[in-house]
From TrEMBL:
This is (S)-2-haloacid dehalogenase. InterPro entries: 2-HAD (IPR006328), HAD-like_sf (IPR036412), HAD-SF_hydro_IA (IPR006439), HAD_sf (IPR023214), PGP-like_dom2 (IPR023198), S-2-haloacid_dehalogenase (IPR051540). The lineage of its organism: Bacteria, Pseudomonadati, Pseudomonadota, Gammaproteobacteria, Oceanospirillales. Keywords: Hydrolase. It comes from Halomonas litopenaei. Belongs to the HAD-like hydrolase superfamily. S-2-haloalkanoic acid dehalogenase family.
Amino acid sequence: MTAPERPDVLVFDVNETLLDLTHLEPLFDRLFGDPAMLREWFAQLILYSQSMTLSGLYTPFGQLGAGALRMTAEIHGVTLEQNDLDELGERIGSMPAHSDVAPALERLRQAGFRMVTLTNSAPGAGPTPLEKAGLAEYFERSFSVDQVKKFKPAPDTYAQVAEAMQTPPSRLCLIACHLWDTIGAQAAGWQGALVLRPYNAMLPADGVPVPDYSVDDIGKLADRLIGS
């Protein structure tokens, strides 16, 4: 496959791509006796966020996350208390950065790349998760789907970034650990870079866009982008 043209703007997904979702595992271990239940909850959250968008509806991601936890608990016969929902919100808001992220971002910044984020999460009061994780300084802007009231991978979520950054779609690269996100970006004319975090993989099926880059950590992506 021919190497893609070097992008002008790198657009990073936040949850799980930059910030470590396993920070939530102790909550699921306490509630369900199995930290891997985090993955069932997260799959429900993504399924219903996309279902809302396809139905022309919108509820902020954090509220859907709490609802998905209630749903998962009901399915498994677990009783939730308000403090459980509070802990979910606290843990989501304080996820640490993956160890490969800051060094790679620093190298990309030194190499002259413009960098922004695009997240399903709505903005909130107080320090942002990126600020708490020590990553906010690397990004020129932070975009949220809350601005268009549609969740990724809806085309409008990517279009708002291209318009705001005044950059042709082909010069933007979406970096995410979720293939559904890179699929949406590539369908919008962007480049796509898949970071193969645990519990994420390619989907080998006809018609599914293959990411322009596929790596198992962001440092390796930096190597390829800087060398391109």
